[in-house]
Amino acid sequence: MPEATLADAAPLSRCRTPTLAVVVPTYNEAENVPILVARLEQALAGIDWELIFVDDDSPDGTAQRVRAIACTNPHLRVLQRIGRRGLSSACIEGMLATSAPFVAVMDADLQHDEGLLPEMLRLLRSEPLDLVVGSRYVSGGEVGTWDRRRASMSRLATRLGQRLIKADLKDPMSGFFMLRAEVLQGCVRDMSAVGYKILLDLFATHPGPLRFRELPYRFRPREAGQSKLDNAVLWEYLLMLIQKWIGPMIPARFIAFSLIGASGVLVHMLVLWLAFKLAGSSFLVGQTIAALVAMTSNFFLNNLLTYSDMRLRGWDLLRGWLSFVAACSIGALANVGIASWLFQAHSFWVLSALAGILVGAVWNYAVTAVYTWKRPKAA
Ligand code: GDD
Ligand code: MN
């Protein structure tokens, strides 16, 4: 009999799996790692636990720092992802890397209160709950020292999120929670895994309501390093909401790509107006310049937003731009070709134009997804 089957059959008492896995996503958190480990060590005394750092190849050597501490601390593991970025996907992959029955997620920057973990575990073990959430918005919880912009951004995101999930979760933006591992395993394939909002994703994806409890804590100020929450994160959040709203049939990236495509139409019109109407160029020259400028702006916006997790840099930008313009030029031909063919056949001009645009957009998206933003070899 293969060994795995033997292990499968082991009775629970012989099971060597830790009870709790704490998953910590990291990007440039080397300085915070030793402090977090020491605090967890204290908070989790008496519990059989492991700590999984999921590091996206941080330039500050976070993964190496974890390995150095792991030499003397068997609780620690590191999952180092090459050529990838993304908080949600990091958390998911970390949670799937353990066989512990209970899994917690928390930030590395010491903003979450590790003192809550034993109580979260106790609740999950003793009550019929799937999930316990560390919450800043139930009584006793606090957001700590936030500037006004960040606080109002968080409030808006929270309200939108609550609409999406139809559960009375006061802090759906929380990045601090503990759950039964099988809850994740049951719905992980349907999660969107983009952006920052893993908890929302979980609630929105889980078939049937989740049984949860919220525990208050005070969101502490960051100790070292910087927050990675920026405007791109907000954008990803909006995408996730749209994605959940229209369903999994249409990929989130295609939605982003199409929205940016629509912005390209405005750019095109503006440039054409400037060249043709103001500068007095011929229509053909104006139209060509406008198309090039629009494609270029689409390329950079897509590189920034649609493919923020696999952004092209340096010389790759030039190669990417060339392939993008080539692909979109063929897409434009297909667009015009199909539209005029349909128009000749049926003469519904709006429908013909829309069909042409759709075919062009799908073509552009499909081709640039393969040739412009290639998956890195290591992934
Ligand atoms: N692996 C990986 N990859 N980790 C990342 C990435 C990434 O692309 N981006 C951020 N992290 C890690 C950080 O290193 C940190 O440990 C944690 O994820 C949270 O990132 P921060 O940049 O500190 O986020 P924040 O403090 O602004 O946001 C926190 O509060 C939000 C609520 O307002 C997080 O807890 C969010 O999850 C939470 O929604
Ligand atoms: Mn933080």
Automatic annotation (TrEMBL):
Keywords: Glycosyltransferase, Membrane, Transferase, Transmembrane, Transmembrane helix. InterPro entries: DPM1-like (IPR039528), Glyco_trans_2-like (IPR001173), GtrA_DPMS_TM (IPR007267), Nucleotide-diphossugar_trans (IPR029044). The keyword Transmembrane helix applies. GO terms for biological process: glycolipid biosynthetic process; polysaccharide biosynthetic process. It is a multi-pass membrane protein. GO terms for cellular component: membrane. Residues 257-373 form the GtrA/DPMS transmembrane domain. One of its GO terms (molecular function) is dolichyl-phosphate beta-D-mannosyltransferase activity. Its main location: membrane. Residues 22-184 form the Glycosyltransferase 2-like domain. The chain crosses the membrane at residues 254-276, 282-301, 321-343, 349-373. PANTHER family: DOLICHOL-PHOSPHATE MANNOSYLTRANSFERASE SUBUNIT 1. This is Dolichol monophosphate mannose synthase.
